[in-house]
């Protein structure tokens, strides 16, 4: 959840895109947001998104851990960059890193060095209910840079693992 200032709507042109109906990604699109899809992509939608990414387009992919296993094509978009979703919900025992009494309703640290998250905290707060962790690649594809942008405290665990260490929930 992003609590945005009104300035964001003045900077970005937002519109809904139905890839199945449009048959293409608009040529003036710089970034697409695929937010917690309820179904997997069709083969055509996946091909259109992969072509968009190969042309240098950006994708903000927000996935729901409860639905991700039913969406292998969606998960495959992250795998293009060596990213993979780890099983289990993240819980952070550090009270500064979760909302209220719910250790699974995360308030991750934002990477202040990355352009995407540099201004978070000034204009908005990121909260993430029921999140899964992201495994960062040991080796990234040529021409790709992977940078963690949202991270937990060192007290975080995956509920199926229980080994505390900082986890990345956005990259």
What brief labels describe this structure?
single chain, 171 residues, three-stranded antiparallel sheet, 4 helices
Describe the protein's architecture and organization.
It is a single chain. This protein is globular. The longest helix has 12 residues, at 43-54. It is an alpha+beta fold and 171 residues long. The strands form four sheets. Strands 8-3-10 form a three-stranded antiparallel sheet. 20% of the residues are buried. Helix 3 (43-54) links the parallel strand 1 and strand 2. It has helices at residues 7-11, 19-22, 43-54, 72-79, and strands at 31-35, 58-62, 84-92, 98-99, 102-106, 109-110, 128-129, 132-135, 150-151, 156-158, 168-170. The chain starts with 6 loop residues before the first helix and ends with a strand.
Helix amount: 10-25%
Total count of helical runs of at least 4 residues: 4
Order of helices and strands: HHEHEHEEEEEEEEE
Overall 3D form = globular
Largest sheet: 3 strands, antiparallel
Helix/strand-derived class? alpha+beta
What Rg, in angstroms, do the CA atoms define? 16 Å
What is the average of the pLDDT values? 83
Strand order of the largest sheet: 8-3-10
Unreliable spans are 1-8
Give the end-to-end Cα distance, rounded to a whole number of Å. 16 Å
Instruction: Estimate what percentage of residues fall within beta strands.
Output: 15-25%
Number of strands: 11
Write the layout of secondary structure elements.
Blueprint: H1 7-11, H2 19-22, E1 31-35, H3 43-54, E2 58-62, H4 72-79, E3 84-92, E4 98-99, E5 102-106, E6 109-110, E7 128-129, E8 132-135, E9 150-151, E10 156-158, E11 168-170
Parallel strand pairs: 1-2
Antiparallel strand pairs: 3-8, 3-10, 4-5, 5-7, 6-9, 9-11
């Amino acid at each position: 959840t992003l609590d945005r200032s009104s300035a964001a709507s003045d900077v970005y042109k937002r519109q809904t895109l139905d890839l199945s109906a449009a048959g293409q990604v608009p040529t003036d699109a710089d970034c697409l947001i695929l937010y917690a899809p309820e179904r997997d992509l069709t083969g055509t939608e996946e091909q259109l998104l992969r072509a968009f990414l190969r042309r240098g387009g950006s994708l903000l992919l927000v996935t729901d851990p409860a639905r991700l296993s039913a969406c292998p094509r969606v998960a495959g978009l992250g795998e293009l960059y060596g990213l993979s979703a780890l099983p289990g919900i993240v819980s952070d025992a550090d009270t500064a890193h979760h909302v209220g009494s719910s250790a699974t309703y995360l308030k991750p640290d934002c990477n202040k060095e990355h352009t995407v998250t540099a201004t978070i905290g000034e204009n908005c707060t990121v909260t993430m209910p029921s999140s899964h962790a992201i495994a960062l690649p040991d080796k990234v594809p040529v021409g790709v840079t992977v940078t963690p942008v949202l991270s937990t405290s060192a007290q975080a665990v995956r509920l199926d693992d229980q080994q505390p260490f900082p986890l990345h929930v956005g990259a």
